[in-house]
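Box 3.1 A note on notation
Throughout this textbook, protein chains are presented in two layers. The first layer is the amino acid sequence; the second is a token string describing backbone geometry. Keep the layers aligned when reading.
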Amino acid sequence: MAGMNQLSERQHQVLALLADGHTDAELAAALHISIATVHRHIEDLRHRLGGARNRAHAVALGYRVGLLAPGGRVTQPKGAIY
């Protein structure tokens, strides 16, 4: 899954909030960004995770490849770019 080690810090934040089950509006409020920007971050995240089909698939892939630890904690893969 190309690009996984190139998630931005913001994409890691979005992934963790998605894993916690937050809505787009809740993500926007927590990150102080617009809902349109949330949508863009989610689409970029899905693409970087190898074409995740939807946000739930993105979260599942995040766990599978070690970007998320139990409890939604974000891990930093070796070689990550920030």
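Helices lie at 9-19, 24-31, 35-48, 55-64. The chain has one domain: 6-74.
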